[in-house]
């Protein structure tokens, strides 16, 4: 949904139970005209959708967020000043669904932390 338009994956590695991707944000995407015109900021919903899409890529199937135990937005992402973001998703299948821990960060800056369940 966002991949290939809002962002592009520039690198991805996967091992059992974990996937890491580096994405490059498209600062010219129309969403930034409204969020916000003079100070573009990646919306939290787009950060969460990115986590979902990286997980789907690893699992090779569609998933739906069932429960967010923790979702913390720690710093804003300005796509002009910070076009590259590293997405790390650790996942484990349990009875309740896919237990996921994810972060969006770049070097020493952590933008988002997430823990929750996907189906």
TrEMBL record:
This is 3-hydroxyacyl-[acyl-carrier-protein] dehydratase. InterPro entries: ApeI-like, Dehydrase_ECs4332_prd, HotDog_dom_sf. It comes from the Bacteria. Pfam families: ApeI-like. Residues 13-100 form the ApeI dehydratase-like domain. One of its GO terms (molecular function) is lyase activity. It comes from Chitinophaga polysaccharea.
